[in-house]
Fold this sequence. Notes:
Elements: H1 3-13, E1 20-25, E2 29-34, H2 42-46, E3 53-57, E4 60-64, H3 69-80, E5 91-92, H4 102-136, H5 145-159, H6 161-173, H7 177-187, H8 190-197, E6 202-204, E7 207-209, H9 219-238, H10 244-285, H11 287-304, H12 311-321, E8 323-324, H13 326-330, H14 332-347, H15 351-365, H16 370-377, H17 381-401, E9 405-406, H18 428-451, E10 471-474, E11 479-482, H19 490-493, E12 499-505, E13 509-511, E14 516-521, E15 527-532, E16 537-541, E17 554-556, E18 563-564, E19 569-573, H20 575-580, E20 587-591, E21 599-602, E22 608-609, E23 614-619, E24 631-633
Parallel strand pairs: 21-24
Antiparallel strand pairs: 1-2, 1-5, 2-4, 3-4, 6-7, 8-9, 10-23, 11-12, 11-22, 12-20, 13-19, 14-15, 14-18, 15-16, 16-20, 17-19, 21-23
Amino acid sequence: MTDKELAQQIVNLVGGKDNVNSLIHCVTRLRFKLKDENIAKTDDIKNLDGVMTVIKSGGQYQVVIGDKVADIYDQVMPILGLKVDENRASASTNEKKEKKNIWNSLVELLSSLFMPVLGPLASAGILKGILVLCTVTGLLTEKSGTYMILYAASDAVFYFLPIVLGFSAAKAFKTDPFLSAIIGGALVYPTMVSAYSAGKALHFMGIPVILMNYTQTLIPIVAAVYLLSIVQKYLNKIVPKQLKGIFVPLLSLVIVVPLSFLIVGPVTSTLSQWLADAVLWIYGVAPVIAGFLLAGIWQLAVLLGLHWAFIPIFLNNIATKGFDPINAMLYCTVFGQVGAALAMSIKAKDPKFKELSISATISGFLGITEPIIYGVTLPHKKSFLMASIGSAFGGAIAGFSGAKMFGGFASGGVFGIPMFIGNHGINSAFIGFLISLVVAFSIALVLTLILVPSVKPSKKDTKETTEVTDSNIESPLSGTVMPLSSVNDEVFSKGFMGKGVAISPSLGEVYAPFDGEVVSVFPTKHAIGLKSNSGVELLIHIGLDTVNLKGKHFDTKIKAGDTVKAGQLLEKFDYEAIQKDGYDITVPIIITNSNDFTNISILKSNQAIEHGDNLLNASNQSSDNVIHGTVTSHA
């Protein structure tokens, strides 16, 4: 299956582009926000070749792809009719606002703030660690030009973090990204940093300014951009339209920058310091127990989306203290998963699973654990447990040795190891950290080899299909029959959704085409999914792009789960009003499980039809005048 075909299948199975509010992607996952998750065919998506699994977390419908996620994302976006964002982090349609619980809102905020910058932070952190290793081993000196240039490349994202976070915070709070970056730039402006370093006293209009060093900080700029979003919203209401282009940005800077230095910065910096002190105090009370518990549950926390609450803590510890012990205790969890995956690949008797687990193991060594978790250990729950047990003991050793992460952010894998050396060189804490990785890996490997059954080849190489029988399908509408290829939507016309036919309606009524069950009724009432007693799965899609009407002109008589009889009225719609609103009223009628039938035939084509007339035949019988696997006409 090509990337484009996989992308199309995913879009179809999540409910089509009409069911997608927005889409972002991270290192391994497509993160959809769907209008109705119940419409998505989760089991079918999981069985796609190229998809590892599907998870629902933090209000997102996440399709786990693995290393090729960016390629699939690039193929999905045009299908959704969206442009690929330049930072490859997000794109959305006109999203309908929905009520969210506090936790989902917090997860969404933290992920939108930090997901776009985690890649650069991790890369810069790894480069910092490599430079430390080079100076410890004598390959470079801190005064060499090579070191200075590479250190500038590695440290810039941290030093100017308020500017970088200004952009992502602006997107999160829906305000001007350039003004947000300018505010971040003001916080780290060299003159202000020098004034702080010199202990200079400053006043703003007679009010004393508590100077602080905002380089490498994160909470002050986030709070400042949130303030900017409020100020801009107010200014846009009161400033005349003709003056907005100049005076809204001008007044925003004049208001927000001074308030950031006078109130927002000092308050949030103090809170940041308190947070770091509290975390380190808890860590200091019982580091061994903390390491054992946190590392033992960490990968489960990642699955549940709880890890987003910790990332600001890691970064805040680095910004305020220059080091972080928490991520040092959790780093071994990657190697625990790698050990379990390697054991599963050694034991595997299924060639396909062996190939998958070996590939996932290699990705794990590089710090990407999703292919391991979703493709190897989580589907075989005992191996996930063994990985967690190994990680717990590794975390305890890291806590006992006092291991710390210095000067950056490490996302995992062998390339991040130098970040734990620090300026004091290789010491007992770093050696203890290395031991924690070896212990997590070894315990997970041995326990999985001993206690987890090997994966054997499945009895069936293909997914088992629904048992179906021959079936005639009556026309659900009155109108004129059209070939599906003439529909002005390639999702239907090219057969991506399945084989079928289209009708240009002459009456705004939809009737049941067979005895069966209502599988789904789209919230906007423009699409109905049915399943016949003989196994036919049918989609009736009333009009094209009519999801934008949000239910206007539609009157549904049934709901999902209802049992229906052939000829029963399902829905009424005002097709003339829909046309007046500028929408194509063509109704595609699709057999979505077309692959379950040998032959699908159109019984009437390019002619008038009444509801209740025979329209389609789905058959598993061979026929001389029907081409295998294609739709032909008998009219």
